[in-house]
Amino acid sequence: MSTETVKITRLGTQGHGIAEGAQGPIYVPYALPGETVAIARNGGHGTLISITETSTDRIAPLCRHFDPDRDACGGCSLQHLADAPYRAFKRDLVIEALRSRGLTPEVGALIAAHPGERRRVVLSARKTEKDFLIGFNRAETNHIVSIEECPIASQGIMARLGAIRAIGQALATGSETFRITVLETLSGLDLAADGLKPLSDKQRRTVTETVLSLKGIARVSVNGEVVIEPQKPVIDFGGVKVAPPPGAFTQATKPAEDAMAELVLSHVGKAKRVLDLFAGSGTFALRLARTAKVHAAEGEEKPLKALEHAARNTQGLKPVTIEKRDLFRRPMMVQELKNYDAVVFDPPRAGAEAQVKELARSTVKTVAAVSCNPATLARDLRTLVDGGYRIKSVTPIDQFLWSPHVEAVALLER
Q1: Which residue(s) pair with 391 in the sheet?
Q2: H-helix or E-strand containing 91?
Q3: N or C of the chain: less Cβ packing under 10 Å?
Q4: Where is S-adenosyl-L-methionine bound in this sequence (predicted)?
Q5: Per-residue pLDDT tens digits for 260-298
Q6: 155, 189 in Cβ contact below 8 A?
Q7: Cβ atoms of 374 and 100 closer than 8 Å
Q8: Is residue 304 a contact partner of residue 297, using CB atoms and an 8 Å limit?
Q9: Whole-angstrom Cα distance, residue 288 to residue 261?
Q10: How far, in Å, are 22, 271, 371, 389 from residue 363 at the CA level?
Q11: Could you give the CA distance from residue 389 to residue 337 in angstroms, rounded to a whole number?
């Protein structure tokens, strides 16, 4: 490891400052373009020691845990970057991903995220000899930084951090690290722990007693199995109430979800038959069912059952049918797609490569692509464009504030 002074020229896709070294780029977390910094260099990685020339875009971070000189939480990587260049950075991630595939559509302004909006956070937890740690991992390590505040998380979650900690302590027996996904629902917090060994009867009693002594906890589950459910967790998809299964995927913020849904619904318009692929618990399907017949396909059974139950128990919806289907291995084929006026797909980070190959050969008029990964979105859009679709718009959406992650909604027509 050597110590040297370098000039930061740009931000990388992970939010690290990049200096151009003789043997290639050097990635320096917490450094910004235009800064001259002293680093301890280990190959292509630099640890920030001091700043001799500071960027005008550098601002004071909001959170006490965002401090590279101390025990820095790895939940955020860009709290030190001013708002305008931060938004430009996120929008550029989408633009550059599309450009790498030869696509140059107009990319709209970033729909911004704000502090206190995150209704879903994933915490790391571990019992030690002296303490119980719960928080986020330090960047690029397995070391847990136990948090006392988190400006990105909702007030409903932060106000119950003590309760989450107490339940985590009741769940922990050995020293293994486990995760607790916390979702704020209309009826209280839904805590889904995973990475733990099966609970003993004594542990179950302890967890149950702990939860019943607290307020604002709707459900606690371990490895997908419900331990206690004082209240049915309920979330709202455009006026339709849904009880998601333990640990089910939901968009991390309600404002981002609403923005995505507004874009999708306005694009689908007056379509009478809509196919929702990778439908989850019904984020889009249940909203679409206000005006169209919807067929929802999803690889996991429990979210589909939650979607179906919500559709059956909500008045005013058009018919909603469901299908459990692994769309990676068995995508909807051209002959099946001809039955629909519009298709919406919202896949995991891997994208929908097999499915879009079939879509590209189809006669579906309208497609809405929702993505959490600009690289796989660009790949999938390239396939659709080569198949005869035109990109009408691409809108980047931020819901993972001060991180390098960005969502996007692309609207296409044949």
Answers
A1: 412
A2: helix 83-99
A3: N
A4: 251, 278, 298, 346
A5: 999 999 999 999 999 999 999 999 999 999 999 999 999
A6: no
A7: no
A8: no
A9: 9
A10: 52, 14, 22, 10
A11: 15
**Mean pLDDT across the chain:** 96
Query: Which is the catalytic residue, given 63, 73, 150, 372?
Result: 372
> What number of residues does the chain have?
414
d(CA 257, CA 197): 34
Cα–Cα distances in angstroms (integers) from residue 272 to residues 268, 278, 319, 366, 412, in the given order: 9, 20, 11, 12, 17
Q: Give CA–CA dist 413/390, Å, rounded.
A: 5
The answer to whether the CB of 137 falls within 8 A of the CB of 145 is: yes
- DSSP E strand boundaries for 106-239: 120-127, 132-137, 144-146, 178-185, 188-194, 217-222, 225-228, 235-237
Q: Is 63 a catalytic residue?
A: no
* Per-residue tokens: 33: 């373009």
Say if residue 284 carries a ligand binding annotation: no
Tell me the pTM: 0.94
346 is in an annotated binding site: yes
Paired tokens of 345: 């797909």
pLDDT of 239 above 90: yes
Q: Is 251 annotated as a binding residue?
A: yes
Structure-token pair, residue 202:
């004594």
Q: Does residue 73 have a pLDDT over 80? A: yes
